Amino acid sequence: MLYSFIIRQAEESDAESVYRILQQAFREYAQITGQTQLEALRETVDDVRKEITEKVVFIAVIDDEIVGTVRLDIQEDKAYLSRFAVGHDSRNIGIGKALMNAVDKYLISKGVREVNLHTASKHTVLMRFYYGRGFFVEAIETDRGYLRARLKKEYAV
């Protein structure tokens, strides 16, 4: 089956749908990692709306339904990637890669030299995905009570 989706920057009116996709994905992440105190699960729709206005948030849309999202916080020539999520029913059709391609293109256009993110090192599917997108493990941290990999990707600017 051929899927047609678009990637665009989120608008404030997308906040409720972005919130729903994040809640679904991070509940699953919590099950896989055994972590119940995830910051993402404590966010409200208003928090998401605020993040959309203050940071760069990309979304993937199929038939007017938001099926994926990723958030970027850019500080000078460095960025932090968070809240990457693709809806369960929309996985393995290229949405995650398309979101990451949009991130790469955007960050390069802004002169960003590196992007970092954190993910549970035990989440093998995500670790493999990020490795495939050019990230590498810079450190393993336990500041949140579990093993989190701090991943980094560098851009030649």
From TrEMBL:
Keyword Transferase attributed: yes
Pfam families: Acetyltransf_1
Gene3D superfamilies on file: 3.40.630.30
Residues annotated as domain N-acetyltransferase: 5-156
Molecular-function GO term, any one: acyltransferase activity, transferring groups other than amino-acyl groups
Domain of life: Bacteria
Key words of the record: Acyltransferase, Transferase
Protein's name according to its UniProt entry: Acetyltransferase (GNAT) domain-containing protein
